[in-house]
Design brief:
The protein is of the alpha+beta class. It is built from 6 helices and 9 strands. Strand 4 and strand 5 form a beta hairpin.
């Protein structure tokens, strides 16, 4: 009877533990259901027609238009840390959701993309969520500390340090045995001691599950480069950059018949992104 009671208590403890959100590592958690919806930006690249002089003959104008800007890019929205449209609870990256359309008569290859910040620094999109997150978090912690009067916390949320409980569990080993006396010293009953290895197994399984969810969603959303577009074809997806304050423009690099061309989207409406104070333009000489 005593063994049965112990087993029932262990099962109850295990069931309760596996329902707690604390079983999932913070970096693997998906966003809350009450996250605000996306905010539409719909920023377009410079229209090709605007690059052609008004007095150009219609036939020549068509050729110049295709040559000047063979593609059109539209940045529909930007998803930031804990901002509107977030799908991962803590993501140290900026997600640019865009569509690129081939407006020319020849196949076009989207070769790469570059995000330019207000300080002239440029970054390329990442293809690995965990590497991108490490780079983004390290960069933000380093630069945010140096620019404490300028840089805001990421997005609309706050950055909190990870707890020390997980570190303690890892250092002790998930399956490190505890004696009854040791458990009593920290206020843990015998039933809890029996259930600890089972809870650990469940936690590991839940973490692997949620980690794979993040990876699958990242792959589903990401616009993979290089990408070839037939005439008239469009590509829709996301480019993931580390958190970048005050971005100036997004350039999509393309190749048409061996000739490199850029399609550029001005990000002027995002000049205050991740900034506490607006950037003051330098005085013109």
């Amino acid at each position: 009877m005593r063994f049965l009671t112990l087993l029932l208590r262990s099962g109850a403890l295990l069931g309760a533990a596996l329902t707690l959100t604390g079983c999932v590592t913070r970096g693997y958690k998906m966003a809350d259901k009450n996250t605000p919806p996306l905010v539409a930006l719909n920023l377009s690249s410079v229209p090709a027609a605007a690059l052609v002089p008004e007095d150009t003959h219609p036939g020549a104008a068509a050729a110049l238009t295709a040559a000047a800007a063979p593609a059109e890019a539209v940045v529909h929205t930007v998803i930031v840390y804990q901002g509107p449209g977030s799908w991962k609870r803590e993501a140290y990256w900026d997600e640019y959701v865009l569509t690129v359309t081939n407006r020319g008569d020849l196949p076009l290859v989207l070769t790469q993309a570059t995000l330019l910040a207000h300080n002239g620094e440029s970054t390329r999109p990442g293809d690995d969520p965990w590497k991108l997150e490490r780079i983004g978090k390290t960069w933000w912690q380093g630069n945010g500390g140096q620019q404490a009067k300028t840089f805001l916390l990421l997005g609309g949320g706050t950055v909190a340090g990870f707890g020390t409980v997980a570190a303690g569990v890892i250092s002790g080993g998930f399956f490190a045995p505890l004696t009854g006396g040791a458990a009593a010293a920290v206020g843990v009953g015998t039933a809890a001691v029996v259930a600890l290895p089972l809870v650990a197994i469940g936690s590991v399984g839940m973490n692997l599950h949620h980690k794979s969810q993040v990876e699958a969603e990242f792959r589903r959303r990401r616009l993979v480069l290089p990408h070839t577009l037939a005439p008239g074809e469009s590509a829709h997806g996301s480019l993931f950059f580390r958190a970048t304050p005050s971005p100036r423009r997004l350039a999509v690099h393309t190749d048409v018949a061996g000739e490199a061309r850029d399609v550029t989207v001005s990000l002027a409406p995002l000049a205050g992104l991740h900034l506490r104070l607006p950037v003051v333009p330098a005085a013109q000489p």
